[in-house]
Amino acid sequence: MLKNLLKYKLSSLNFSNQIKEFEHKQFELNILQDEISEWNDKSIKIQSNFDFVLPNYIIYEILENENTKNYFNLHYLINCAVINGRITEDNGKLLKKIYC
Tens of pLDDT along 55-65? Predict the structure, then answer.
């Protein structure tokens, strides 16, 4: 009888810990979903300022550094996009003028 009671107590404690862990993971997931939604909204806003399609890696770099305003890598990414034909040279110059 004591064995069963102890087993029940341990399993209910374990279950309680699992519920707490699940609730914590769910909270983290909600935060991540909010961040993704915010990221997507900002991405759409940036893209809407241009009449050409920005490669995702350029949008990512702009968003990643929007607080620091350190767009050092962006300059090189724009050059790569121009070289690879993802954007035109004129569009690259426009992006550099705005962000670099």
Answer: 999 999 999 88
User: Which tokens is 93 given?
Assistant: 């110059």
Tokens found for residue 73: 């890598």
| Spatial distance between the Cα atoms of 18 and 97, rounded to a whole number of angstroms | 53
pLDDT (average), residues 81-92: 95
Q: Which three-class secondary structure string do you get for 35-69? A: HHHHHHHHHHHHHHCCCCCCCHHHHHHHHHCCCCC
| 78, 65 contact by CB (below 8 A) | no
Please give the angle made by the CA atoms of 56, 61 and 62, to the nearest 5 degrees: 100
Question: What global pTM score does this model have?
Answer: 0.68
